[in-house]
Amino acid sequence: MEHFTELKATKIFSFSSEFECQAMMFCFKTRFKTFDKNQKIVSQGEPMNDVALILKGSANVENIDSLGNISIVMRLKKGDVYGVESAYARDDVYKDSLIATEKTLVMFMDSHRLITPCENRCKRHDLVVKNLMRMMAESNIRLLDKLTHMAKKNIRDKVLSYLYSISQKQQSTYFEIPFNVTELANYLSVDRSALSNELSKLKKEGLIDYEKKQYHLIKKDKYDE
Amino acid sequence: MEHFTELKATKIFSFSSEFECQAMMFCFKTRFKTFDKNQKIVSQGEPMNDVALILKGSANVENIDSLGNISIVMRLKKGDVYGVESAYARDDVYKDSLIATEKTLVMFMDSHRLITPCENRCKRHDLVVKNLMRMMAESNIRLLDKLTHMAKKNIRDKVLSYLYSISQKQQSTYFEIPFNVTELANYLSVDRSALSNELSKLKKEGLIDYEKKQYHLIKKDKYDE
DNA sequence: CCGATTTTGTTGTGAAAACAACACTTTTTA
DNA sequence: TAAAAAGTGTTGTTTTCACAACAAAATCGG
Predict the structure, then answer these.
(1) DSSP labels for B10-44?
(2) Three-class SS state of A79
């Protein structure tokens, strides 16, 4: 079966045998597609019919407002899904664009089929729903986390709060972040040059060290617990 | 049965008969409690054992960071729940405090019982899970919505984005918001006096009108679609 | 109903961030 | 592998915001 290895590696389908996967793929009317870096996987404002599951690579969830400001909502990695909450809320269009940040393999699933109790009763559909639930819970937590960074009143606290949370997640003061400086600025909704400036200062002051996407939190200061 | 009317009015239990409710209440080890205005319903950092369901009244989800800054994460109304995503993520402590904003009746449900498939197989447990799922999807969307407001680079755009989204939701340019100015400032993470000032300007310029919590969007300008 | 507390609008000041411009470096790609 | 494109660090200028202070208005609680 096509891409079974990747599918098996995701949280959603981890439990499934190849046979079960095949049944569900039929049930969810899945399609596969590979995208190059910077290609649009889904487009903000277009009719929403599918939920996207990242099988290989990664992608940014990006939102552009009416003034053209780009905001990176979050970064999706292998195994993450986009569009589940919209499917449940019965949105008719995509609220964001999904942009591949490298060569990325995506599986699309019919959103209606996914959230509707299966008449065929493909055996593990319930379990899929349960896994989706856990993923939605995690997404919720990620968003709450992001909100705590964005709630800080200056760039320094925003970025330190962000770095601190990554450090905690990775259980180390040495860690890699998924963004370059420009992207991080969009993620935190601050000016790129101002962020670059602040990072320089933090480095000069010996609070952090970094090189490309590799960071080291030296003094955690007030963010200690 | 105690509080059946209120329970029946919530999304989670809307389908249930009094008998079924009673069975589930046993299953979820529910407890009821009434809180006065400004009383803490759950406390940030304390052990998390229960999911809270608002049956009457309303409450703020508030987060205090290590520097003492208060941030209002969201406002919960009748029928809303707090803690589902934490329950699924198996958090051991509450990440926020829940503060009653008026006299509020809360039902607590054992979080472990809630997310664990029921051995007793109380008939509608699956349906409850499905409803929780929809609520989590909605919560997700609310958070995404809030992020778009917070992503704006100045107060004016933040508050206009917020007001515009409420207006859309209520399908009218006349609407009521759940926050007073001080609370709205905490919700949007901006200085209260700066927000008050900006609102005054917007009123002077004829873009909006307001009185207490009643607002009127006059010109939607660039936020039009 | 009245005194106490909280909320609000306003103003001024200093700090911080957005914006713009530019040279330099890194990465992409043809 | 060289040219083009994208990302980065730095600086100066302008705008915006946080902060502090205070009087007035509204709300609360006994």
Answers:
(1) STTTTT--HHHHHHHHHHTT-EEEEE-TT-EEE-T
(2) coil
CATH pick for A4-125 out of 3.40.50.300, 2.60.120.10, 1.10.10.10, 2.60.120.260: 2.60.120.10
Min Cα–Cα distance to chain B from A125, Å: 13
pLDDT in tens, chain A (225 residues): 788 888 888 988 887 788 888 888 888 999 999 999 999 999 999 999 999 999 999 999 999 887 778 899 999 999 999 999 999 988 999 999 999 999 999 999 999 988 886 766 666 777 888 888 889 999 999 999 999 999 999 999 999 999 999 999 999 999 999 999 999 999 999 999 999 999 999 999 999 999 999 999 997 655 543
Per-chain mean pLDDT for chain B: 90
d(C-alpha A45, C-alpha A42), whole Å: 9
Q: Nearest nucleotide to B211 by CA–C1' distance?
A: C8
**Listed residue (B108, B201, B115) closest to B154, CA to CA:** B201
Residues of chain A with CATH 2.60.120.10: 4-125
Kindly give the residue spans of alpha helices, DSSP state H, lying in B29-180.
Answer: 84-88, 111-115, 125-150, 155-170
Cβ–Cβ < 8 Å for B130, B57 = no
pTM: 0.93
Numbered ranges of CATH 1.10.10.10 in chain A: 152-224
Most A CBs within 10 A among B63, B143, B221, B225, hence the mutation to make, goes to B143
B65 contacts in chain A (CB < 8 Å): 148, 151-152, 161
Q: Could you tell me which residues of chain A have a Cβ less than 8 Å from any Cβ in chain B?
A: 63, 65-67, 69, 71, 73, 84-89, 95, 129-130, 132-134, 136-141, 143-144, 146-148, 150-153, 161, 189, 191, 222-225
Taking the CA of residue B185 and the C1' sugar atom of nucleotide C10, their distance in angstroms comes to 17
Domain A152-224 has CATH 1.10.10.10: yes
The closest of B46, B15, B34 to B134, measured between CA atoms, is: B15
